[in-house]
Amino acid sequence: KAPALGVEVSSAPFGSDVPLGEPSWYQNLNTPYYNASHVAWRAKLRGFFEKEVEPIVDDWDKKASQNDHAACAVYIKTMYQKSARYGILPACVGKPWPRNFTGAPEPAGYDYFHELINVDEGSRCGGGIAWAMMGGLGIGLPPVLNFGVPGNKQLQERVVRECLAGEKIICLCITEPGAGSDVSALATTAKDCGDHFVVDGNKKWITNGIYADYFTVAVRTGPPGSAHKGLSMLLIEKTMPGITVSKMDCMGVWPSGTTYIEFDGVKVPKTNVIGKIGGGFKQVMFNFNHERWLLAAQASRMARTCVEESIAFARTRKTFGKFLIEHQAIQHKIGEMAWRCEGLQAWLENVTFQMNTMSKEEQNMKLGGHIALLKLSSSRVAEFCASSAMQVLGGAGYTRSGKGAKVERIYREVKAYAIPGGSEEIMLNLAAGQFGFVKRRAPDPRDKKIKQLMEELKVIKSKM
Fold first, then answer.
1. Residue 360 and residue 319 in contact, taking contact as beta carbons nearer than 8 Å
2. Cα–Cα distance, 29 to 10 (Å, whole number)
């Protein structure tokens, strides 16, 4: 039985013996958040990623950079199937455990901290692998789970079961060439043609898109100018004619298969509507908090990996007759990285606790601003730590093999956390709005002039 809330517990040290190379509760420190179930789940996940994933990361990354789509498709599909056999995939889609759609054993007292451990352990190898193995699933399947497919429950059942079993892959399609964070400006249309829609438009920077069997797509079912009120979400299958996918050459997260998707006259039955017509904007917003929390958790672990790799390297590298770690400048550089990681981890766990004690509706009402700032902090910390670790490792960190491979990979992936899921600038704007920074706006002198001109125009029209 899990200890009561607020009871401090500790577990035996786990993982790396490098100072601050693991979160504090791995280091035999007390915690009010984790219990025996989390400890067992952590051991299971560490075993999986060390045995099945770490040995193939470098080659997977290399094959992806070479656009060897066939080899990468084998990797991602094999890893999805192995993840399913380990019972990991259901822990990628939030709380509660989707027990109605999977036979995978549920950890005792499953909560968001179990999912956090899943994300954390899965990100030790880098962002590209994390996005490949849980990116599309973690953001593409929740709308289907949370809002359902009321017109075709059999389709919903099939898609969810196949994805959680690692048999099929799903992705989320929101961003377009001309609209990202400005969701209300989406231009992909779904024209009403009786019993079906005809979908036309393009989606860009779609994680897992090139490998996906299913697409959760935000479309405009309303008339031009309908903004957020005219959006809906459709569940589209890869087998429907008119869909073209092409891999994009990006700066990092190569194994994730960032994709450009074209929908050209795709006929989609109306029964494939997720939730209800016109409810797309709410569904997208509902999904964002979980997505941003996932990104923050990934960035947090990647930053900590930079600390771990820096200390491990500096303890063995000799310069000027002593180990690199003995130089005060290096100690300070690592210390600057470490305090940021510790603060970020504490914030991440606090937000996770809030999620654990709230309904999804309450989360969306209260946590949007907090998660926005958490995501911002995580990308800034990851970028700082990646840059600092690169300086500690020097030439080794600049090389895509050997002792610096992890740091080199993380360094080119950090911008994938500063931009996708809402850029840092958008996160600041969102937080300002959510917290109500501006209580009242100062009157704009132009408003008075406009009003005067409108009255004059009205008088002129009355005399005509």
1. no
2. 6
Q: Distance of alpha carbon 307 from its chain centroid, rounded?
A: 22
Tokens coding 79: 């890893």
| End-to-end CA, the chain | 83
In the chain, the amino acid numbered 457 is L
Residue pair 341/385 in contact (Cβ under 8 Å)? The answer is yes
Q: What are phi and psi of 49, to 5 degrees?
A: -70, -35
The span from the CA of 117 to the CA of 353, in Å, is: 13
In the chain, what are the helix, strand and coil shares in percent, each to the nearest 5?
A: 55, 15, 30
SS3 for 277-331, per residue? CCCHHHHHHHHHHHHHHHHHHHHHHHHHHHHHHHHHHHCCCEECCEEHHHCHHHH
Gap between the Cα atoms of 361 and 366, Å rounded: 9
Integer Cα distance of 453 and 450 in angstroms: 5
What are residue 220's phi and psi, to 5 degrees? Answer: -100, 110
Are the C-beta atoms of residues 257 and 207 closer than 8 Å to each other? yes
Encode 122-136: b = buried (16+ Cβ within 10 Å), e = exposed.
bbbbbbbbbbbbbbb
| Amino acid at position 223, single letter | P
Distance CA 252, CA 208 (A): 14
HSE of 121 in the Cβ direction (CA atoms, 13 Å)?
A: 28
Give pLDDT tens digits for 254-305: 999 999 999 999 999 999 999 999 999 999 998 999 999 999 999 999 999 9
pLDDT averaged per 10 residues, the chain (length 464): 55 91 94 95 96 95 94 95 94 95 96 97 93 92 96 98 97 94 92 97 97 97 93 98 97 95 98 97 92 97 98 96 97 98 98 96 95 98 98 95 95 96 95 94 88 91 86
Sequential DSSP letters for 52-89: IIGGGHHHHHHHHHTT-HHHHHHHHHHHHHHHHHHT-G
